[in-house]
Q: What sequence folds into this?
């Protein structure tokens, strides 16, 4: 669960970064909301967030440093998802 908490924390950092384009922050907010929704099973939340972040990482408007952060978050979630046998 530690990786999930770290991923949520890193997503918050991207959301709070004013240099990240608004449309990118909006998608990160959706992923954050999905991850923190306790009404869904954890592996479903992580899978949905990974999908959003994977699609986001393909965006040509994504700044390079933010792309690296997105990859790190997705990697943390994939590690966590593997531990939950998604």
A:
């Amino acid at each position: 669960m530690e990786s999930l908490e770290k991923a949520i924390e890193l997503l918050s950092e991207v959301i709070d970064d004013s240099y990240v384009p608004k449309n990118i922050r909006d998608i990160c907010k959706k992923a954050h909301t999905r991850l923190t929704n306790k009404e869904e099973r954890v592996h479903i939340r992580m899978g949905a967030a990974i999908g959003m972040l994977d699609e986001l990482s393909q965006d040509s408007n994504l700044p390079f440093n933010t792309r690296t952060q997105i990859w790190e978050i997705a990697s943390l979630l994939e590690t966590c998802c593997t531990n939950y046998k998604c």
Observations:
- The mean pLDDT is 91.
- Residues 64-83 form the longest helix (20 residues).
- The CA atoms of residues 53 and 74 lie 6 Å apart.
- Residues 2-83 form a domain with the de novo design (two linked rop proteins) fold (CATH 1.20.1440.50).
